[in-house]
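Hi there, hope your week has been kind to you so far. Thanks so much in advance, here it is.
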Amino acid sequence: MRLYQGVTWGSEFYFNNQRFPTDDTANRSKSYGGYTYADLKLNKNWSTGFQVDYAPIVDAPGNGP
């Protein structure tokens, strides 16, 4: 019986709608991002996995990484 094997997977997505005051008007900026990960449990002591994420710069969403 293999008690320690298994896979865990998770994800999250988010959306931001924020107003930044400027000299003459308040501009509204929208951005989104998220992440996903997976973890494979190999045995009692070892696991491996990966994570991928995307998160733009909030005050300049068009200039994200």
Summary: The longest strand covers residues 6-21. The chain has one domain: 6-57.
